[in-house]
From TrEMBL:
Name of this chain's protein: Retrovirus-related Pol polyprotein from transposon RE1
InterPro entries, per the entry: DNA/RNA_pol_sf, RVT_2
Pfam families the record matches: RVT_2 (PF07727)
Stretches assigned to the Reverse transcriptase Ty1/copia-type domain: 3-127
Species of the source: Vitis vinifera
Amino acid sequence: MDLPPGFKEKLEKKKVCGLKKSLYGLKQSPRDWFERFGKVIKLQGYIQSQADHTMFYKHLREGKIVVLMVYVDDIILTGDENLELERLKKTLTREFERKDLGPLIYFLGMEFARSKKVEVIDKEKYQRLVGRLIYLSHTRPDIAFAVSMVSQFMHSPNQGRFDAVYRILRYLKGTPGKGLLYENRGHLQVDVFTDADCAGSVIDRRSTSEYCTFVGGNLVTWRSKKQSVVARSSAEAEFRAIAHDICEVLWIKQLLEELKVASPLPMKVFCDNKAVIAIVHNPVLHDRTKHVEVDKHFIKEKLENGLIVMPYIPTVEQVADILTKGLPKKQFDDLVSKLVMNDIFKLA
């Protein structure tokens, strides 16, 4: 290192100059630079890692994070919050001379490649869309089953599940005026259509229970819900579904009584499983249904009390089937019409 021009003549031979700051190339320069760099980054709210002092990170709201890694004077920025990344870039530009090389390609002799086949899934977007569909399904029973399926994967969406959500949205876009029609049909008969899709879930083989409850021929309640335990047979799945559905009609009966509205008895529970109907009417104990005795005796009690009857209905006419599984278009459209759903724009 040489003295600047003009200083040699003024200084004696045995005197030296003291540097007021580090210069590039000195032994202590990298350490001094890193200390200053660290102070600037920490002032932005970043924490220096104790496991690797060359890494700084900042936790943001909703579980998001931005990470900065530095090797000598090469810096990598990564994270899932674009606004914070841009703000950090501006800070680095203001405090240091830097050059943005764009997306990471080469670093420490390694080449980083990206594949277009692997798509980034926005979990928050999936949750927002499904949340809105759940809200809409409160007045659109025709999408209740589809929404119940996509809502099972709120924390593990993938492209296929996104496609299913978009398909529901396309259906809604094609039927914007579809709504429930309530008419005075001169009676308040309570009817419930109940069904169960035995072992329908390919993930855990749990069954799905569903029901549609009509009062005076108007749809008032409906639900599609996965059962909490695995059913070993279709009869077992049906027993659990029917017992739950009877609780629903008993609640409706109590509500009507409080309002002093007369509803004829017995209430009808339509089932498309002849074996289940035969078992609940047969006083003989069946070995295959010992583990669902509580549900079976609950159903039998309501039958003997005259609160309900269980007429058989063919599967093709089972309205609740629309809440159990995906159906062919013709069958789906037929069942939607039986739900008394009409285009409200045409009615106006």
